[in-house]
Amino acid sequence: MNSPSDQRHIHRVLSGEKDAFRYFVRNYQEMGYSVAISIVKNDMDAKDAVQNAFIRAFRSLRSFRQDSQFSTWFYKIVVNESLKQIKRGKSNNETVSFKDDTKDYGPIFNEAMNKLEVEDRNIRIDNALNLMKPKEALVLKLHYLGEQRIEEIEKTTGFTKSNIKVLLFRARKSFSALFVQYKN
């Protein structure tokens, strides 16, 4: 089921209030990008895939069956649009970082150090995720960053539940090893 806020905004959009769709862009753009980048490995292609996914979601909102969550439905569209980007031959496998882009470290030294540590951790996470197998990185992001249950990941990716469990197991192991490797 959708969150009450998602349901309210779906109803508003379907009632003709097109600006209400901004809610979905605000809430799902970052994770959509994260899903897309794990597939296409290229910043521009990932942004294109997410933009196309939002356009497709907006146009198809009337056909959205609300028996699943909006996020599951939307991330499935992102996966499909990302795969279309690859089929078009636009992806060139660049490594991309989605680290915290905050430039204002504040006047206090401790605050600046904390932010630098977060940035360093995000870079290590990026490096580890970019070196992982795409399917493993995808299920890891959907499960932990997208907070999706296995059933939702199944709907998003089309993978079987047992395959998702195996991929998550391998992804955790792989991520852990790669993350530690980038600590040094």
What is the annotated CATH architecture of the largest domain? Orthogonal Bundle
Structural class: mainly alpha
**Largest beta-sheet details:** none
Order of SSEs: HHHHHHHH
- Residue-averaged pLDDT: 82
Give the proportion of residues in helices. over 70%
Helical segment count = 8
Protein name: RNA polymerase sigma-70 factor, ECF subfamily
GO molecular function: DNA binding; sigma factor activity
Pfam families: Sigma70_r2, Sigma70_r4_2
Keywords: Sigma factor, Transcription, Transcription regulation
Give a brief description.
The chain folds into 2 domains: 1-96, RNA polymerase sigma factor, region 2, helix turn helix motif (Rna Polymerase Sigma Factor, Chain: A, Orthogonal Bundle); 99-184, Arc Repressor Mutant, subunit A, CATH 1.10.10.10. Helix content is 71%, strand content 0%.
Commentary on this structure:
The protein has 184 residues and is mainly alpha-helical. The chain folds into 2 domains: 1-96, Orthogonal Bundle (Rna Polymerase Sigma Factor, Chain: A), CATH 1.10.1740.10; 99-184, Orthogonal Bundle (Arc Repressor Mutant, subunit A), CATH 1.10.10.10. The chain is built from 8 helices and no strands. The chain has helices at 4-14, 22-40, 43-60, 70-87, 109-131, 134-145, 150-157, 161-181. Helix 2 runs antiparallel to helix 6 (134-145) and helix 6 crosses helix 8 (161-181). The chain is globular and about 50 Å long. The N and C termini lie far apart (43 Å). Residues 91-109 have low confidence and may be disordered. GO terms for molecular function: DNA binding; sigma factor activity. It holds the Pfam family Sigma70_r4_2. InterPro entries: RNA_pol_sigma-70-like (IPR039425), RNA_pol_sigma-70_dom (IPR014284), RNA_pol_sigma70_r2 (IPR007627), RNA_pol_sigma70_r4_t2 (IPR013249), RNA_pol_sigma_r2 (IPR013325), RNA_pol_sigma_r3/r4-like (IPR013324), WH-like_DNA-bd_sf (IPR036388). Residues 124-173 form the RNA polymerase sigma factor 70 region 4 type domain. Belongs to the sigma-70 factor family. ECF subfamily.
